[in-house]
Write a structure and sequence with these properties.
By secondary structure, this protein is mainly alpha-helical. The protein is built from eight helices and no strands.
């Protein structure tokens, strides 16, 4: 027998409600923007564990969440904003943590906010500003260290009994002299071909 348009619409609505209820049962309760951020962090950690992440990763995520709650405090996850990210950044800087580690914590926080945005806990993930990490100064060998290296390579190239090893020591000596004489970096020196 043929169904009317109204009957079809009602059948689709019933099926939709059944599917939605099934998905909610499988995924848990509907997400709420008024949920405390600590509770949302716990859900995120469970989600990360369920995705098969390394236990060490989950421990580090828990550390970031703990720092956030200690520094910023509890608030509804839907209220998350750039102000919270800035406050967290200032608080983490006060703990005398290396800039690279601070950026790791900020990256985890940004990942959490993307997770929350995907689940409609927040409208959009707040922007997280990273810290500029200072690069350590380059170590430059002293003239004595360079002379000792060249002398050692010359000695090995002249006295090594095996031909293949003697060849590689001579090659290293040649590369060291080219780099010292031209100012080339190691990658540039290794890229040299006969055609050059």
């Amino acid at each position: 027998r043929r169904r009317t348009a109204r009957q079809l619409k009602d059948a689709v609505n019933v099926r939709w409600e059944e599917k939605r209820a099934e998905l909610e049962r499988r995924l848990g309760s509907p997400h709420d923007a008024r949920k405390p951020i600590g509770e949302a962090f716990t859900e995120w950690q469970a989600h990360t564990t369920a995705r098969g992440r390394s236990p060490l990763t989950v421990v580090e995520i828990a550390r970031t969440c703990r720092y956030y709650l200690e520094i910023v405090g509890e608030h509804p996850v839907g209220d998350s904003s750039t102000w919270h990210a800035d406050r967290f950044l200032e608080g983490v800087k006060g703990r005398e943590i290396a800039p690279a580690s601070i950026n790791t914590h900020l990256s985890r926080l940004a990942t959490f906010w993307r997770y929350a945005a995907e689940r409609d806990m927040i409208a959009a993930a707040p922007k997280v500003t990273r810290v500029k990490a200072a690069h350590p100064p380059r170590r430059v060998p002293t003239a004595e260290q360079v002379a000792a290296l060249l002398a050692r390579l010359e000695h090995l190239a002249a006295t090594t009994p095996h031909g293949r090893d003697r060849y590689f020591y001579a090659l290293h000596l040649l590369l060291a002299r080219v780099m010292l004489g031209t100012g080339m970096r190691s990658g540039e020196a290794l890229a040299i071909r006969r055609e050059n």
